[in-house]
Amino acid sequence: MVITVIMAIMTGGMSLGQTFPSVNAFATGQAAAYKMFETMKCKPSIDAYDTRGITLENTQGDIELKDVYFIYPARPEVQIFAGFSLFVPSGTTAALVGQSGSGKSTDISLLERLYDPEAEEVLIDGIDLKKLQLRWMRKKIGLVSQEPILFATSIKENLAYGKENASKQE
Predict the structure, then answer these.
(1) Most C-beta atoms within 10 A of its C-beta, which of 40, 43, 52, 136?
(2) What distance in Å separates the CA atoms of residue 78 and residue 98, rounded to the nearest whole number?
(3) CA-CA-CA-CA torsion for 18, 21, 27, 32, nearest 10 degrees?
(4) pTM above the 0.85 mark?
């Protein structure tokens, strides 16, 4: 009987010893899940599904960033723009050139209204983007980013990805 108890204690101790590496993995998973659920609870300041806002019958396409100040929410210690202005008239081609981190992609993110500037405004045809219906406005913008990512499908489907119900001609 004593030998059985000793063997049971030894077997239990070895089993407990083998579970400790798994306990660490469970703790890491629990911490990651907490962060994920907190992120899911966040209400974005820019609602992509909001149907409020104006839509324009005709757009010319003049783009203007007017004295823009911007800081990424995830990096509040780094000022990206401090009074940046840019005007691109409709029908012209513009190239944004600069070192990494100088704000080239940030310009596009502000134009697509993935972010709102801290101060001043981003305009299309003289109208503040915040006044336009976001879904309508994003359908009017075509973008090929500096690092295009293709999805595992045909070229046609990749090209049509950004516009639902695109015609064959489009």
Answers:
(1) 136
(2) 17
(3) -130
(4) no
Asked whether residue 48 is assigned to any structural domain, the reply reads: no
Q: What is the extent of the structural domain holding 3?
A: 1-42
Contacts of 84 (CB under 8 A, 6+ apart): 65, 67, 68, 69, 70, 103
Same-domain check for residues 74 and 16: no
User: Judging by DSSP bridges, how do beta strands 127-128 and 79-88 pair with one another?
Assistant: unpaired
pLDDT digits (tens, 9 = 90+) for 101-155: 788 888 888 999 988 898 888 999 999 999 999 988 888 887 766 666 666 777 7
DSSP, res 163: S
Q: Are residues 71 and 126 in the same domain?
A: yes
**Is the separation of the CB atoms in 53 and 134 below 8 Å?**
yes
In a domain, 147, yes or no: no
Does residue 56 lie in a domain region?
A: no
Residue 113 in contact with residue 134, Cβ under 8 Å? yes
Helix (H) / strand (E) containing 64: strand 63-71
How many CA atoms lie less than 13 Å away from 162 in the CB half-sphere?
16
Residue 168 lies in a domain: no
16 and 84 within one domain: no
